[in-house]
Design brief:
The protein is of the alpha+beta class. Strands 8-11-9-10 form a 4-stranded mixed sheet. It has a 3-stranded mixed sheet with strand order 4-5-7. It has a two-stranded antiparallel sheet with strand order 1-2. Strand 9 (about 175-180), helix 6 and strand 10 (about 200-205) form a beta-alpha-beta unit. The chain is globular, with a radius of gyration of 19 Å. The protein has a domain at about 1-145 and about 170-180 and about 205-230: Muramoyl-pentapeptide Carboxypeptidase, domain 2 (2-Layer Sandwich). It is built from 8 helices and 11 strands.
Length: about 280
């Protein structure tokens, strides 16, 4: 199924290198018109995107000079709901990182997803936070939750409040999956008691040691949005999780040569070129 989805995405993409090069610096404003999502998380765009407010009940943007805060209106609403529910649970403000560019496409800084206005990075910091100015929030750096070696969490950084934040995030409407470090997934598998169905959406992925990556499903009515297959059944606390730690025992692979960005779908040209 995954190969079929990737094949559809590849077929829908332009093969012209000139259009790939046109991606260049992202336009500073959204494309006009109704909301329209085109393509997949790894190659796509969005028209009619909305911008997340700088701050709101229970949340605040950080590192604004290095991040982009645009998305589908449902994504904006989901973040606002997360802030409200976190606040109701007694958590301090959550810090919001990268979402999407105003018209989608690839983000600066190595992100290969975040292209449709359906993704958001939430920093894993549940410590008390004083109100900060925009310049002060721009300089924030969040420490890793994962201990050196990558096999376990740092007990000094792990907390019940962090588990609460992860669970609230997984229970937001229309969440497709949440990417977290394998060590964080392992800790959840070992410690979460009672109702565990939400662990299914917690998917291990390299990095993600100081933030989680929430991905929402394609909204209804967006026929050009390519939805990835759902996560496998079960809580994911099985041999599939062990695989990630087995990779840590292998010799480091030689560095791969840089790859050119995947061309955007042909229909994205009108979105990127719109005045």
């Amino acid at each position: 199924m995954r190969r079929a989805v990737l094949a559809i995405a590849a077929t829908a993409c332009l093969t012209s290198q000139s259009f790939a090069e046109q991606r260049g610096p992202a336009p500073g404003r959204p494309a006009p018109g109704p909301v329209r999502i085109i393509g997949s998380q790894a190659s796509g765009c969005i028209a009619g995107a909305a911008e997340l407010p700088d701050t709101g009940p229970g949340f605040a943007q950080i590192r604004q000079s290095r991040s982009s805060f645009w998305g589908h209106p449902d994504t904006i609403a989901g973040i606002a709901l997360l802030g409200t529910r976190a606040k109701q649970a007694g958590l301090p403000d959550i810090y919001i990182g990268d979402m999407s560019n105003p018209r989608g496409g690839s983000l600066a800084g190595g992100h290969s997803s975040h292209q449709l206005g359906l993704d958001v990075d939430i920093w894993l910091d549940t410590t008390p936070k004083p109100p900060l100015s925009r310049p002060a929030r721009d300089q924030i750096e969040i420490a890793s939750i994962v201990a050196p070696g990558g096999r376990a969490v740092d007990p000094a950084r792990w907390s019940a409040e962090l588990v609460t934040l992860l669970k609230i995030s997984a229970n937001l409407p229309n969440v497709d999956r949440i990417l977290i470090n394998p060590a964080i997934k392992r800790q959840l598998c070992a410690t979460v008691q009672g109702e565990r169905s939400w662990l299914r959406l917690m998917r291990p992925w390299w990095g993600h040691a100081s933030h989680m990556h929430i991905r929402f499903r394609c909204p209804s009515g967006q026929a050009e949005c390519i939805q990835a297959p759902p996560p496998p059944a079960g809580d994911g606390c099985d041999a599939s999780l062990d695989w990630w730690f087995a990779q840590l025992d292998k010799p480091p692979a030689p560095p791969s040569p840089p790859r050119a960005p995947t061309p955007l779908p042909a229909a994205c040209k009108a979105v990127m070129d719109a005045p």
